[in-house]
Amino acid sequence: MAYDFITDKGIIVSDTSNILGEVQEEFKSALGNEISVAANTPQGVLINAETISRVSIQDILAEMANKINPNYSGGIFLDTISSLMGLQRREGQRGILENVKMSGIAGTIIPIGSRASIGESGNEFSLLQSVRLGEDGTAIGSFQAINDGKIIVPIGALNTIISNILGWDEVSNLMEEEIGQDEESDEELRWRRRLTLGLQGIATIPAMYSGIYDTQGVRDCNIIENYTKNDRTIEGVLVEANTLAIYIDGGDGDILAKEILKRHNPGCGLQGDIEISVEEEVSGKDYLIRFSRPEYINIFCRIKIKNSEYLPNGETSAREAIVSYSIGGQTGERGLSIGKSVSTFELASAVNRDYPRVFTSDCEVSLDGETWTRESISCNGNQKFIITTGDIEVIVL
C-alpha cells in the first residue's frame, strides 16, 4: 500500500474499511478468489491483523506529518517551529506572597527558607528573608511558592507552619492574591504565535501587535491608527492627526515602552495618558513614549439554564465557564477584548461549550444590573468589558 495521503489540500487518511478491502483483495489474489475472508476464519484473523497494522502506521505517519503544521503541532515540535520566528514558550514561575504576618514570642528569629503551607497538604511556601518578631510578637514577611504555577491564595489561607521554629506560633497572609504562572500550554503558545506573526518586522502595525503580545503579562491590545492630516474620531476615540493610539491590557510599562519604540513607524506620533522616557540603544537619545490602559467596564449577566444536574459544582460551574470565556480561558477564544462588544450568544455558548448537556434557555446582559437586554452591547476602541462571578446571576429552571 502506498501511503501517499499528503496532498496540496492537507493530510487525508484512508478509511479503515477501504484498507480492509484492500488487504482482502491481496489475500484473494494470492490464495484464490474462492477463499473466505470472513473474520472468523484463520485467514480472516490474519487479514484483520494486517489491517490494524496498516491503520496504525498510517495514523503515526499522519500525526508526524501534522507536526510541521503549527496549527496542530505540540510539545517540542511546536517549540521548534515557534523558535524560527524568535518565539519561546513561557516557562512556569513561582509566585511570591506578600504581606504575610508571622506571630509568636517577641524576639524570635525566623530564618530565611522557613516553610509554611496552605492547610495541611496544600501548596508550600518558603520565607524569602529572615525576620525577627517585634515587641508585639509579630512581623511581616514575604514567602515564595516552592513549585511553579498559578495559585489563588485567599486571605488567611497560608496558615500552617511546617518548619519547627521555637517561638513561631502562627502564620497568615493578610491579602488575597493570585500569584505565579503556569507553563504556557500548547494551545496558548499556538494562539500567541498567531498573534505575533510579525515578530521579526518593524515599522508596521502587525509588527507592533506582535512585539506587544510577546511581552510578558500582556493580555490584550488595540491599536487605532489615524493616518490622515486631521484629527478624527475612530472607534469612538478622538485620535490626533498622523498618530497611533495604543491601548494595552497587562504587561510592565517600561518594557512595553521599549517595545513600542523598537517597532513603531519613525515619525508617527503617539498619544496616551502614560508617558515613559526611553533611551534608544544605538543613538543614546531619549524618546517619550505614550500609550494608555483601557477603560474597564463591568458587565452583568443573567442566564437561565436547564439540566443543571450536569454542572459538577452547580451554579458556580456556570459562572466560572462564563468568566473563563471572558478572559480567553477557553481554547481558541480571545474572550472579551479591547473594543469588542459583549454578546449574549457567546456568553451562553461558553456554558454549553464546557457542559454540552446543559441547556441555556435565555441570556441577558446589563451595564447597571437593572436594565437588561438580549442584544449585544458595544464599547469604544479604548474600553474593555470585564465580568466576575459576582456579576453573574444563574437561574435554574
What does the model show?
Helix content is 26%, strand content 29%. It has helices spanning 16-31, 42-66, 75-83, 186-195, 205-213, 253-263, 315-326, 344-354, and strands at 6-7, 10-11, 96-104, 109-110, 115-118, 124-127, 131-132, 138-145, 151-153, 158-161, 168-173, 177-179, 218-226, 232-234, 237-239, 243-250, 269-271, 274-279, 286-291, 295-298, 300-306, 359-366, 383-386, 392-396. The strands form nine sheets. Strands 10-5-6-8-3-11 form a six-stranded antiparallel sheet, with no helix packed on it. It has a three-stranded mixed sheet with strand order 13-16-17, with helices on one face. A three-stranded mixed sheet has the order 22-21-24, with helices on one face. Helix 1 (16-31) packs across helix 2, helix 5 (205-213) packs antiparallel against helix 6 (253-263) and helix 7 (315-326) packs across helix 8. The radius of gyration is 29 Å and the shape is extended. The relative contact order is 0.08.
Strand share of the residues? 25-35%
Q: In angstroms, what is the radius of gyration?
A: 29 Å
- Considering DSSP H and I runs of 4 or more, what fraction of the residues is helical? 25-40%
Overall morphology: extended
Mean pLDDT: 91
How many strands, which pairing sense, and closed or not: the largest β-sheet? 6 strands, antiparallel
Order of strands, widest sheet: 10-5-6-8-3-11
Q: How far is the N terminus from the C terminus?
A: 57 Å
Class inferred from helices and paired strands: alpha+beta
> Could you give the count of β-strands?
24
Count of helical segments?
8
Q: pLDDT under 50 segments (min length 5)?
A: none
